[in-house]
Amino acid sequence: EWNQQRRPELLRLFETLVYGKVPEPPKPVRPTFQVRSEEKEALGGTAVRREITISFSEKPDGPRLDLLMYLPKVAGAARRVPAFLGLNFEGNHTIHSDPGIALARGWVPNNPDHGVTNHRASESTRGSSSSRWQVQRVLSRGYALVTAYYGDIDPDYDDGFQNGVQPLFYQPGQTRPAADEWGSIAAWAWGLSRALDALETVPEIDTRQVALLGHSRLGKTSLWAGATDPRFAIVIANESGCGGAALSKRNFGETVARINTSFPHWFCTNFHRYDGHEDRLAVDQHELIALIAPRPVLICSAAEDLWADPKGEFLAALAASPVYKLLGTDGLAVTAMPAPAPDQLVKSTIGYHIRPGKHDVTADDWNAF
Ligand code: GTR
To answer: Has this prediction a pTM greater than 0.85?
Structure first.
């Protein structure tokens, strides 16, 4: 019943009422992949750095996603390695100070502290978010690290869906997605699936062992990508909050009305019906987590990040547990919310982690990942 009836029903509800479905394009969208650069002796000779460009249309000025990957050097050329894949907020060049990473090519958010005021990436932000990406540590543990800038898929501002990938899917005369068609989160999730397609062409990576991770709005995105694409082996949502792991019906921290007002382009138009009316929603976010079952999912909270409602994130993980148990796993191993502490991971198929501190991705979070 779960596989044949309830799961498809829930997926349809999230698709049409929350994130929006990927529309049928008038002509097939067939992304192409091209290796843009390779450095066999990156990071002091410890890793291979490769950049692959995914082009979503034949037009040279059409949307494209620049993937950056670091591959560990492993003994035995035939060995494929597991990978972490996650979108980043301000461009691939911000995740590490490595001067060989190409600067983001499109619109980026301004970062006045680092001198970015015209929405163009610059050298001044190289490595600016490196504390969120433990590149050397991931490599030393034998994993590849793959990332891409989310704004390459759809720049994160409300332009009525004129830029990004959505216009490739418009029927003649259509100018914006229909009420049940994708907002930006669903577009970013679709882009992650295309990134996974591209990884299928990378001989060093085992695409059956890709852990998808995302923080905050990109944690919401990881959960939706994991729900819609069963190829992601593990899904990690860090402080994903409203529209992510946090239960909407608790009405705590960021609410549906708040998020739809601040970010009118993130969800589908139908979701705006629930502004101030969470009680009318046919689904809640524990059912999103359940859509990922029985694959491992890790929900991470930060104690001071009340905007993301840590308790709502925990309760959603707990309420997804019956589906995980139905499908033969251990679900979530605790029933009471753990006290915030570093390195206290609830290590079951639904994992849960809460650390002290604020909204961020830290070394503690990476310990859990
Ligand atoms: C906030 C938003 C959150 C979260 C966060 C982020 O402004 O209210 O839902 O997505 O941004 O992505 O950092």
So the answer is: yes
